[in-house]
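Quick illustration, no need to memorize.
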Amino acid sequence: MYDINKTITHMSNGRSDPESNLFDLEHWSPLMAQRYAAAEEIELTDAHWAVIFCLRERYRLNGPAHSARELVRELDHEFADEGGRRYLYELFPRGPVVQACHIAGLPTPPGTRDLSFGNVH
């Protein structure tokens, strides 16, 4: 159950929201990413790091994505030579937006957790 009081407390501490997304993006570190990935049973490889750093750089330059579809489209284009969307889902089985953004310490775009958005499985 969502508790707004916990959220407000965490905001003031620069921690995370109830879904473990960081409020202050500067508190992220590669060590933190490894911990998030381990919790999701993902062993980070160079391929994972390429996606993570791509997402962080995209966020740094453009701010948050307006939608999950927009972000997936951009990632699909960026990693087209490696296999595009299918490649991204092989790296991040719960989705390159939800799972990769979480590991990268970035907020997910609006509507990302909408079950009608779908996945490859």
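Residues 28-117 form one domain.
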